[in-house]
Design brief:
The structure is a single chain. The protein has about 260 residues and is α/β, with parallel strands linked by helices. It has two domains: about 120 residues, D-Maltodextrin-Binding Protein, domain 2 (3-Layer(aba) Sandwich), CATH 3.40.190; about 90 residues, D-Maltodextrin-Binding Protein, domain 2, CATH 3.40.190.10. It is about 45% helix and about 25% strand. The strands form two sheets. Strands 1, 4, 5, 6, 7, 8, 9, 10 and 11 form a nine-stranded mixed beta sheet that branches. Strands 2-3 form a two-stranded antiparallel ribbon. β2 and β3 form a beta hairpin. The chain is globular, with a radius of gyration of 26 Å.
């Protein structure tokens, strides 16, 4: 009898340990599966993006459909991830940030990094490279590095963009903040601005629509910045796997493009 009681004393806790261990192992595996295996075909997530009007990266084409380098590149990655997505065209980056802060969208693109955006979102790897450049008329003798230029020049840029933030952080006076790139081009050509500080591709695209001789405009690249996608912190809390998955697919796309050259 004593031996039987001793066997029960040993066996019962051992069985309990096995059950508890199995439970925690199953729980850990499930947690890992939730993090690494994102979804089944029947349970695709849907991402909502704000996309600022910023041709040639993002704009409405003649068929009133979203087009541009940014749209093409990001949709390629999202399609490879087999997720659903919706794009909301907005006037500028300030609206995009407000929409994300309010929880109306899960992210926005294309964007360069700044401290205000980093408070509520995380940025992806570079989708494209954005050159911030000075543009001025060749008939004007301008040295953008000279202290006199910083003190006296009439400078224009786009409202609620990182070029605006950069100018302010570096103590450049801004004469004009516009929602419209075409307005800045017109003001520069009419000598109402001494210089425009803007994304190179955006300014050249707007200038080319006017059939303007590019030889009349000089440019200097100030800095090159990654042009990326911001995903809200709220979205990434629910889908912790997503940013790594997005960056991984983006890297594959870049590798494929490089091999095709």
């Amino acid at each position: 009898m004593g031996r039987t009681m001793w066997q029960k004393f040993i066996t019962m806790p051992f069985k309990v340990c096995l059950v508890v261990s199995a439970y925690f192992a199953l729980t850990a595996n499930n947690a890992y599966a939730e993090q690494v295996v994102p979804q089944t075909t029947e349970q695709k997530i849907t991402l909502r993006f704000a996309v600022p009007h910023f041709p040639p990266y993002i704009y409405l084409n003649e068929n009133k459909k979203l087009a541009g380098q940014g749209i093409v590149r990001v949709t390629q990655v999202l399609n490879n991830l087999e997720v659903n997505y919706e794009f909301e065209l907005v006037a500028n980056y300030g609206v995009a940030l407000r929409e994300m802060r309010s929880g109306n969208v899960d992210g926005f693109f294309l964007a360069t990094q700044n401290r205000f955006r980093d408070r509520i979102a995380q940025i992806s790897d570079a989708v494209l490279i954005n050159n911030w450049s000075w543009f001025y008329k060749t008939s004007n003798v301008i040295d953008v590095k000279h202290s006199g230029f910083r003190e006296q020049a009439k400078i224009g840029t786009i409202l609620n963009t990182n070029t605006q933030v950069w100018l302010q952080d570096n103590n450049y006076p801004i004469a004009t903040l516009s929602n419209d790139v075409d307005t800045l081009v017109e003001m520069l050509l009419a000598d109402r601005l001494d210089a425009v500080f803007l994304s190179e591709s955006v300014f050249v695209h707007a200038l080319s629509k006017r059939s303007q001789n590019l030889d009349n405009i000089a440019s200097i690249i100030e800095a090159s910045r990654n042009f990326s996608v911001y995903f809200s912190n709220n979205f990434l809390v629910e889908h912790r796997w997503f940013l790594d998955a997005f960056n991984s697919e983006l890297a594959k796309l870049k590798a494929q493009e490089k091999e095709a050259l």
